[in-house]
Structures are given as structure tokens and as C-alpha cells.
Write a sequence for this structure.
């Protein structure tokens, strides 16, 4: 097949498919992906010879997309982030990792596969949500909060893309830590160069015309090449160049010139993802059940976090949750990069494509139906609504404080202790594999000793953090009129959060070790299911503890 015919078929068919989906009220991205899947059934053997050609378009599309995100966000936009979007992001990522760890233990996935699965479930589609926000007339405050969360998600995805190549290196744990530190150092240098040197060049040379667009694109690709030469993702360099261009006085006009070029590459990129994902050779419940679970968890996390932190009604939060069911394209991009690096199998690309398609379809339809939100909200008992509303008012009063002195102090102390817990949990869990190499006769003694030390440290740090929260709550009671009963709730929730984080990390790092132990002890083929059951029981007990704390709030 001639390359011109290939491009004509791909662009023409994807345009028709996209138009059809948009007429039905769905996202055009789903149309592009389905076009790729359909074309893979017809031209699978002929397209193989153009694999490098399609990969070139994919690489350029990723670089231009990330460059555009950096240009639109800008360094000033990063500096203006409020606490509420950050809280929502942390809640949804935390939920995604909990579910990914549970599924990973059930299906006996590796730690890297669990991480990729969690990233697929952590990000929404910025393009789809932006379109729906404009069409469905959400108020300005909701728009700002949701778009701020989307920007934060894009930043997290870019950082994951930046360090992903390091996971492909077969090195020891300490070497991985060193490489991650090196990655962060190069990241800081690229951003610094972009904001101090490249932006001055842009202001003097680039104008909103064809020549200016050519220079901007070449700079993005140059920085992407520099980033790749250091073993990092090209997306990082392109993002740094985008930040530099964001300071240009005519940034918006330049963006209008860049958009058509970017869109052409993105069309080919999404179609090529669909081509590569294709249809699986045999049906697997994994490819259907997990995407549906991801969509549901995104709906739950976004709805619950907005309900707790934003003082909005449950009906409004459910509508916002419907928006978040559009699983992000960045999940596919990360799965695609992980596949190219040999970190995951092709089924993860198919899984992410299925999640994006189903998410785009569900988000487009559910968000436009206000009666769906009302029906779901009516299922929640009035007592629960009153409890959550009371929590939301108190939490919002703290989070919306203008001085933010107590909030910053609380976050710093909790963050410091959570980092300590994560480090201890990671090192302790990883040491199980090392100790197991020195003799199987001490395996169970080593297991008990390491777990005892890890949990002793975790309990100590959790108790210390709990006391920090109580001290800060006392100050808030005195100076800001916080309900005194909230103190017990916040301290209890903080304790439960740290314990759940520790459990998450331990199961992520040493889940396969525990599965092997269960296989030896139980002599049953259901060890992964038993490990998942242990995880779910522990999580349920923690959730019950949180619920008991919430019940203590005076209505």
C-alpha cells in the first residue's frame, strides 16, 4: 500500500467516524480510536510495514500536545493553584492506586503493571471535559475547579512520562532512587533554562505568524531531543519549551496558529493507537471488567472528593463526577510508552483504549442528563447527606482560609510524615525479597521481624501525626471557630489515611512475595484471591473506622 493512500484512508475514515460520533453527542476522540481499531481489522498486515512511519507521527504528536499544555498552563497558572483542586487530585489518585493494588493482587500483576494500571485510572480527558463544560453551562466556579484538577492531572502525567524510561532499566533499588533523583535534577534544569533563556529568545524572535510557529515547534522538538538524550521522556523537554512560550505577550495568538498543526498530528496519533491496540485475539474479562471498574472509581472519587471539600449539593457533585468518567488520553499515552519500553503487555494498551472509548461515551451522555444525578442522589440516606454536609462546611472553612497559616502547617507536617511512612514501607517491603535470598529456613522469621519493625514505625509516625492534627485543631477552635467535635474526626481521618497509604505501598511493593507465601502455606491455587481478600478486609475495616469518626459529628 502506498503511503499516500494510507494517509488518505486514515484521515478520511477518521474524519467521517469523528463526525458521526459528534453528531450522536460523543467525543471525537472515541471516533478516532474506533477508526483505528476498525482499520486494524482490514489492513493489519499491510500497516505493519509502516509501523515506523506511524510511530514518528505518534512521537511528534505527544511532544506537541505536551508543548501546548505547557503553553496554556504557564508558570503563572501553576503558582495560582488553590488547595481544593490539589485535595481532589490526591483523593482520586489515592483511590485509583487502592483499586489498582487490589486488582493487581487478584490478577498477580507486577508492581510496574499495577503502577501503569493506576495511572490509567488517575487521569481524565481534558479535551472532553473542556468541551462538556462549555456545552452544559456549568457555573464559573465549577469550571475553574474542574479545569484546575485537569491541569494538575496533566502535570502529574507529564512527570510520569518523564521518569518512565528509568523503570525499564534492570537495576537495584538504590540505583533506581539515584536515577529518579537524576531525572528530577534534569527536569529542574530544563524548566530553569526554558524560563530564563528560551523565553527571552521567544519574546524577541517569535511573532504570531508562520515563521513564529515554525520556530516554536522546532524549539519544542529540540528540547524534547535534549530530554531524550538524558534517558528521559521527550515530553518533559517539550513541556519546558511550552512553559517558556507561555510568558510571551502574544501567547494566545500564537496558540491559534499552532492548533491546526497539533490537531493533524493528534488525529494520526489516536488512530495509530487504535491501530496498535486493535481487537484482542481472544476475549478476556480483564479487558471489559477493569475498564468499567476504572470508570466507576473515577466517578466515585471525583463525586466524593467534591462533595467533601466543596460545600456543594450531592446532585451537583454527581454531575461533576459524570464529567470525570471520561478516562484520559494520557493513560493511553503512558500505556503506549510502557509497551514500547517492554514494561507491560499489549493487553494494557487495549485496556486503556477500551477505558477511553467507554469513558468518552458515558461522560458525554450522563453529564447531559440532570435527572440521572437526581436519581443517584436520592439513593443516599438523608442522615448521610447531613453528616457529609456538616463535614464539608467545616473542611471548607479551613481550606478557604485567606491566611492559610494553619492549613499550610497541617499539610507540611502530614506530608513529611506520610513521606517517611512511604519510605519505610517501601524499604521494608523490598527487604523481604533480599532476606529471602539468604535461606528459606528463616523466611517466616524474617517476614515476621520485618513486618513488626515496619508496622511499629508506621504506628509511631501515625500517632505523632495524629497529635499534630489535634494541636492544630485546638488552634482552629480558638481562632476560627471550628466545631470542637471536628478535632476527633480530623485526627482519626488523618490516622486512617496514613495507615491506608502504608497498606497500599506494602502491597504494591511486596504483593507478589505475600502471594508466594500464601501459596506455600495454603497449598491452594487461589493465593492471589486470598491476598486480595486480605486487602479488601483491611480496607473495609479502615473505612468503617472512618465512618465511626464521621458519626461523631453533631448534626
Amino acid at each position: 500500500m502506498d503511503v499516500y493512500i494510507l494517509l488518505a484512508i486514515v484521515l478520511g475514515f477518521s474524519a467521517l467516524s469523528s463526525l458521526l460520533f459528534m453528531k450522536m453527542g460523543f467525543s471525537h476522540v472515541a471516533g478516532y480510536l474506533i477508526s483505528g481499531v476498525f482499520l486494524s481489522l482490514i489492513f493489519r498486515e499491510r500497516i505493519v510495514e509502516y509501523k515506523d512511519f506511524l510511530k514518528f507521527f505518534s512521537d511528534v504528536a505527544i511532544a506537541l500536545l505536551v508543548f501546548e499544555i505547557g503553553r496554556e498552563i504557564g508558570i503563572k497558572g501553576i503558582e495560582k493553584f488553590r488547595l481544593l483542586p490539589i485535595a481532589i487530585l490526591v483523593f482520586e489518585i489515592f483511590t485509583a492506586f487502592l483499586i489498582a493494588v487490589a486488582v493487581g493482587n487478584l490478577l498477580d500483576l507486577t508492581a510496574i503493571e499495577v503502577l501503569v494500571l493506576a495511572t490509567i485510572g488517575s487521569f481524565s480527558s481534558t479535551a472532553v471535559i473542556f468541551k462538556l463544560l462549555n456545552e452544559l453551562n456549568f457555573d464559573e466556579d465549577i469550571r475553574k475547579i474542574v479545569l484546575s484538577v485537569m491541569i494538575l492531572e496533566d502535570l502529574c502525567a507529564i512527570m510520569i512520562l518523564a521518569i518512565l524510561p528509568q523503570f525499564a532499566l534492570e537495576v537495584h533499588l538504590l540505583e533506581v532512587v539515584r536515577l529518579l533523583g537524576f531525572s528530577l535534577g534534569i527536569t529542574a534544569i530544563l524548566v530553569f533554562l526554558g524560563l530564563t533563556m528560551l523565553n527571552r529568545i521567544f519574546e524577541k524572535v517569535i511573532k504570531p505568524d508562520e515563521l513564529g510557529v515554525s520556530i516554536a515547534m522546532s524549539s519544542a522538538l529540540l528540547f524534547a531531543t535534549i530530554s531524550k538524550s538524558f534517558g528521559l521522556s521527550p515530553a518533559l523537554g517539550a513541556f519546558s519549551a511550552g512553559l517558556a512560550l507561555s510568558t510571551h505577550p502574544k501567547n494566545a495568538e500564537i496558540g491559534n496558529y499552532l492548533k491546526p498543526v497539533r490537531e493533524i498530528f493528534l488525529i494520526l496519533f489516536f488512530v495509530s493507537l487504535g491501530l496498535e491496540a486493535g481487537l484482542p485475539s481472544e476475549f478476556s474479562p480483564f479487558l471489559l471488567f477493569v475498564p468499567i471498574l476504572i470508570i466507576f472509581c473515577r466517578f466515585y472519587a471525583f463525586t466524593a472528593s467534591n462533595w467533601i471539600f466543596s460545600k456543594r449539593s450531592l446532585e451537583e457533585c454527581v454531575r461533576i463526577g459524570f464529567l470525570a468518567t471520561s478516562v484520559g488520553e494520557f493513560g493511553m499515552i503512558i500505556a503506549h510508552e510502557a509497551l514500547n519500553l517492554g514494561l507491560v503487555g499489549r493487553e494494557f494498551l487495549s485496556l486503556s483504549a477500551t477505558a477511553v472509548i467507554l469513558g468518552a461515551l458515558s461522560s458525554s451522555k450522563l453529564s447531559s442528563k440532570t435527572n440521572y444525578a437526581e436519581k443517584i442522589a436520592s439513593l443516599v440516606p438523608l442522615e448521610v447527606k447531613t453528616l457529609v454536609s456538616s463535614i464539608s462546611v467545616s473542611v471548607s472553612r479551613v481550606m478557604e482560609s485567606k491566611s492559610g497559616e494553619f492549613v499550610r502547617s497541617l499539610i507540611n507536617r502530614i506530608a513529611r510524615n506520610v513521606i517517611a511512612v512511604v519510605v519505610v514501607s517501601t524499604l521494608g517491603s523490598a527487604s523481604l525479597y533480599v532476606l529471602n535470598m539468604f535461606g528459606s529456613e528463616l523466611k517466616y522469621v524474617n517476614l515476621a521481624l520485618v513486618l513488626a519493625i515496619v508496622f511499629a514505625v508506621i504506628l509511631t509516625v501515625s500517632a505523632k501525626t495524629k497529635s499534630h492534627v489535634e494541636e492544630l485543631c485546638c488552634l482552629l477552635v480558638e481562632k476560627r471557630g471550628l466545631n470542637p467535635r471536628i478535632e476527633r474526626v480530623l485526627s482519626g481521618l488523618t490516622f486512617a489515611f496514613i495507615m491506608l497509604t502504608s497498606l497500599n505501598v506494602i502491597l504494591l511493593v511486596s504483593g507478589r512475595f505475600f502471594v508466594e507465601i500464601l501459596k506455600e502455606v495454603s497449598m491452594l491455587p487461589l493465593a492471589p484471591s486470598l491476598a486480595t481478600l486480605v486487602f479488601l478486609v483491611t480496607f473495609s475495616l479502615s473505612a468503617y473506622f472512618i465512618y465511626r469518626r464521621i458519626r461523631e459529628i453533631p448534626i
